[in-house]
């Protein structure tokens, strides 16, 4: 079984939380029994999360050797320059090593659901949207990459993992998907990137 879920902002990628007070978890969305996340999304990130009850399938989704493309729409603070985009495309030196080359382009603001809570803006600082595809899944990797080139992330929405796209799923909604597809198809350097129209 493979489930596509649109994880809302502020929800943990786990079914229990021992914090006091407890934080929102996956338990509140009526997901099928026995599934667990194949990979993670930070609590302050949104979008596509795949869940499965198949350990081998989860491994294929999460193992970086498969170079499975993970595609994000990223709202950043600042106006991206050609040099900043080239740096993202070439790989960024982070504390845990250099990232693989990414696909990165500026896109028009996408038609997304309102975030709760809303993103806080500074009137004197412009913002922009990027479409970014990576073949890795390090902790808070996209946020660290954009920060490293001087473009702090304001909002982060994952829209695709390999062949599976978020589509029209509303926040908190889920659907079963065909787990017979080649989930490992499409590396970050070759897969088309859905979501957002490129800025000419």
From TrEMBL:
One of its GO terms (biological process) is rRNA processing. It is an enzyme of class 5 (isomerase). Keywords: Isomerase, rRNA processing. Coiled coil: none annotated. GO terms for molecular function: catalytic activity, acting on RNA; pseudouridine synthase activity; RNA binding. Residues 2-148 form the Pseudouridine synthase RsuA/RluA-like domain. InterPro entries: PsdUridine_s_RsuA/RluB/E/F_cat, PsdUridine_synth_cat_dom_sf, PsdUridine_synth_RsuA/RluA, PsdUridine_synth_RsuA/RluB/E/F, PsdUridine_synth_RsuA/RluB_CS, RsuA_PseudoU_synthase, TruA/RsuA/RluB/E/F_N. Pfam families: PseudoU_synth_2. PROSITE patterns: PSI_RSU. Its EC number is 5.4.99.-. Belongs to the pseudouridine synthase RsuA family. This is Pseudouridine synthase. It comes from Luteimonas viscosa.
């Amino acid at each position: 079984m493979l489930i596509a879920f649109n994880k809302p902002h502020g929800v943990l990628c786990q079914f229990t939380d021992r914090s006091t007070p407890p934080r929102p978890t996956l338990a509140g969305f009526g997901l099928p029994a026995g599934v667990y996340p194949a990979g993670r999304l930070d609590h302050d990130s949104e979008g596509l999360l795949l869940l499965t009850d198949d350990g081998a399938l989860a491994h294929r989704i999460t193992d970086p050797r498969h170079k499975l493309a993970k595609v994000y729409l990223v709202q950043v603070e600042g106006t991206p320059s050609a040099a900043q985009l080239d740096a993202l495309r070439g790989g960024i030196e982070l504390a845990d090593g250099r990232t693989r080359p990414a696909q990165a382009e500026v896109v028009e603001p996408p038609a997304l659901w309102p975030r709760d809570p809303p993103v806080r803006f500074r009137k004197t600082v412009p913002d922009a949207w990027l479409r970014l595809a990576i073949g890795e899944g390090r902790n808070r990797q996209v946020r660290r990459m954009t920060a490293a080139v001087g473009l702090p992330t304001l909002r982060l929405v994952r829209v695709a993992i390999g062949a599976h796209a978020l589509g029209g799923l509303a926040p908190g909604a889920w659907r079963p998907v065909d787990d017979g597809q080649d989930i490992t198809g499409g590396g970050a350097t070759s897969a088309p990137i859905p979501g957002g129209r490129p800025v000419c």
